[in-house]
Amino acid sequence: MRRTRYLAVGLALTIALAGCGGDEADPEEATEDGAATETSTEAPTEEATETAAASPTEAGTASGEGCAELVIGSVHPLTGGLALDGTQMDAATQMAADDLSTDGLSITIASADSQGEPEIGQTEAQRLIQEGANALVGTYQSAVTTNLATVAQREQVPLVIDVAVDDAITSEDNDYVFRIQPNATAMGTFGAQYLQALGENAGEPIETVVYMHDETSFGTSVLAAFEAEAGNVGIEILETIAYNPFEVQDVTTEMQRVAAAAPDALVVTGYYNDGVLVAETAASVQPDVNAIVGVAQGAYDLPQFPQDTPDASNGIFDSNYHFDATKERVQDIRSRFEEENGDAMRTAAVLAYQAVEVIATAARSAASCDGADIAAAIQEVEVPEPLLTFPGPITFDDSGENENAQPVLMQVQEGEVLQVYPEEFAEAEPQFPAVPWQ
User: To 10 degrees, the CA torsion angle through 138, 20, 12, 384?
Assistant: First the structure.
């Protein structure tokens, strides 16, 4: 079971975020493996803990006293098929470290390349901890993150998941693993609900779908959650079609199966390259559907997607976690990131930035760099200004899940990805029915 809550964390982010307009990050340092700084592992005394609970300012929590040098291990796929996202996420952790470091707390990022392989990610996480990492962020893949969760629990070092969806990664039995983004259950459940609302609001009910998905734990876990909710909202899944996202080169036969089934909508879960392939094949085969809807699809919410597929993307939806495009702070972070790195900041990178923020806030609250103290503080932490479209602050339940995590429905309209539902986050009205070839 998770530890008893004992830290009072009424800590606002005013001080933590004072450096947001500060020195720009060096993009070359973002992917450089560095030796971790040696830090104190002495736990706070009982007297200090009581003082912190009574008066965080007097105990020095707001200034970071007691944790002067915080080392965060960043484990992401820096090479291989997912390197574009991985390198962005690693660069975002460095940017966050630069933004959030203050006179009282210096944050260093120690980077590692998982190469997209669970065993390598696990070995690299262990190395970073041995070299002095006080906490970990990562990893963009559920399989890799599962292995890191084991390391985090064994070594008593907190892992804040930026991107990894599989429900099984977190549990009440693991005191050291926390997830910011919606998990697979939330992604699949909200995906089905948004699909039902989309059709109902337009007067064109979506009653049948074919579901194409990658065959990894990512795709299958989201599918399972979607299936569980689909029956509750009156959606029948006519057929499910699985594929290997890292090896697939042609889905013409699969798309012909979609056309033969004649569903109201095609639903897709997967990564970037396979998502592009599905969209381009759909535009070629042109099945008789009213919409193509991604659910946790790793392509359809990215600004690069309509640029890469100008003839095959317009009208496509995606229900996914997403940076809140309506917030000025998010706009500032993304603008500076693009200026420093030469590429538009993806949502995965925004989550990596936020993961560092969660750890830094907890370290300040705990007034300690000890992994167990930081983990206990994360359990109690409240980050009032999430960078994503969440309906409330970032807080964690007893399983380490963000209690306010939920996706948003987006759509490509005239070459731009826009938030369209729920209304509180909408930048435009959804267009439905809508497919690229109509």
Answer: -60
Nearest Cα neighbor of 315 from 413, 418, 210, 205 is 413
β-strand pairing of 69-76 with 106-113? parallel
Provide the pLDDT for residue 398: 95
Q: Whole-angstrom Cα distance, residue 70 to residue 48?
A: 19
Decide if 148 is inside a domain. Answer: yes
Output the CA angle 100-106-107, nearest 5 degrees: 65
Report whether 316 contacts 295 (CB < 8 A). Answer: no
Q: Residue 31: give its domain's CATH number.
A: 3.40.50.2300
Cβ 321 vs Cβ 181: under 8 Å: yes
Which secondary structure element, helix H or strand E, spans residue 229, and what is its range? helix 217-230
Same domain, 262 and 315: yes
Domain count, the chain: 2
Domain extent at residue 225: 185-320+408-425
- Which pTM value belongs to this model? 0.77
Q: What is the pLDDT of residue 218?
A: 86
Q: pLDDT at position 326, please? A: 87
Asked if 148 and 131 touch (Cβ cutoff 8 Å), the reply is: no
Residue 167, both tokens: 């429900």
pLDDT for the residue 200: 95
- By the 10 Å C-beta count (0-12 exposed, 13-18 middle, 19+ buried), 127 is classed as middle
Nearest one of 180, 96, 186, 173 to 138, comparing CA atoms? 180
Q: pLDDT tens for residues 217-245?
A: 889 999 999 999 999 999 999 999 999 99
Strands (DSSP E) contained in 311-353 are 317-320
* Token reading at 348: 């995965």
What pLDDT score does 2 carry? 52
pLDDT at 46: 38
Please check whether residue 165 is in contact with residue 221, taking contact to mean a CB–CB distance below 8 angstroms.
yes
Please check whether residues 311 and 334 belong to one and the same domain: no
Taking alpha carbons only, the member of 111, 85, 79 closest to residue 97 is 111
In the prediction, which pLDDT does 35 show?
34
> Looking at the domain assignment, is residue 41 inside a domain?
yes
**Dist CA 226 CA 407 (whole Å):** 13
Distance (Å, whole) CA 253 – CA 259: 10
Percent helix, strand, coil in the chain, to 5, is: 40, 20, 45
Q: Tell me if 222 sits within 8 A of 296, measured CB to CB.
A: yes
For residues 233 and 219, give the distance between their C-alpha atoms in angstroms, rounded to a whole number: 21
Ranges in the chain, pLDDT < 70: 1-65
Residue whose structure tokens are 């975002």: 92
The answer as to whether 390 is a domain residue is no
